[in-house]
Amino acid sequence: MSHIWQDLRTGSWLTPGRIRGYCLLVLAISLAGLIGLLATSNHFIDRNGKPIGTDFSNVYAAGVLTLSGKAPDAYDPQLQHAAEIAVFEGRDVPFFGWHYPPFFLMVAALLALMPYALALACWLAVSLPAFMAAVYAIVPRRETWLATAAFPAVFVNIGHGQNAFFTAALLGGFLTLLDRRPVLAGVLLGLLSYKPQFGLLIPLVLLATGRWTTILSATATVAALIVASTLLFGMSVWHAFAASATFTRTVVLEAGGTGWEKIQSLFSAVRMWGGSIDAAYAAQGALALALAASIVWLWRSQAAFELKAAALAVACLLATPYVLDYDMVVLGIAIAFLVRHGLTRGFHPYELSLLALAWAVPFLTRSIAGLSGIPLGLIVMLALYAMTLRRAASDLGIQTIGSSRLVKA
Known about the structure:
Blueprint: H1 2-10, H2 16-39, H3 56-67, H4 77-87, H5 105-111, H6 116-138, H7 142-149, H8 152-160, H9 164-177, H10 182-191, H11 202-208, H12 212-233, H13 236-254, H14 266-272, H15 277-300, H16 305-319, H17 331-345, H18 351-372, H19 376-408
Helix pairs in contact: 2-7, 3-4, 3-5, 6-9, 6-17, 9-10, 10-12, 14-15, 15-16, 16-17, 16-19, 18-19
């Protein structure tokens, strides 16, 4: 038993050969699962009566409504569901709500110009390589491609036809370019506003570190998106978006319409354990405040940029009450920055083992939460954030001691 704990502590169990073997095994199992899902489907409806690409059906249906001049209807649950049913020729598919800002309808309309299957294929063929390229830009090593392709969150996202690849690619690009290309970083951040719940802490970091060029660039990008969507769809679409917020908050979030086991937030964990809505909001708010204080401290410190970037990526997931297991694709960005830091400065005890668990957890968290009520994804993200802060504090302590010795000498 002591030998096992020693291996976990040092990370010696995670050899390059084992990493490659685990990645190939996960890749083979995941690809077999996806092929089986397609092979057993009927006219792009799986055996459970759900569309292939589940959540993508709401993107495509919203695009169809937009092309027909009915963009505001995408925010009406009954009209949106009717459009989703129409996409699949009257099959009674489940409802997948449209909750995105109106400017994302421009993307949806572009996709709806194609048949559903082709649109889904293009959606994934563009977004997945963008995510993989963002990770490779952080850790430019040959083995990065395999580890990223086999990342379990990739297959969770593909199965849902979701947009987490775009989210992670934009966030990763923003962090990678922040110091070198602040204007372009701001543009990427502005584009990320299609998922506003993930931008709660980023403006705070930019303000705290005085990155005014990036702030202005991001603001201009968001303003341009708002103007363009208003000119294309009219002000009524913004009224519909605002009105839909009540449904999103009460049904999807507070009542757990999505499923508590799928949502990876502290809010969801409290509700899953029987806590009240007020208690869940209080817990989530306290966590958000703690994240805000610690992330500002970290970004204003002299800690390595890799630690700042990794912490911000994880904090973006932890701060919002509504984060799904497929959104954990963003963990790939955090893991990449932490791996880059560890490769140059060494890994502390248990860090490699925790990184391996963070890599694997998107495959496990939904089923474990559903069976036991244990929010493993949330626990691992909290542990990863704490590890990053601890590493930063440790590194800063080493630098301070070293500096004092130089002064004394």
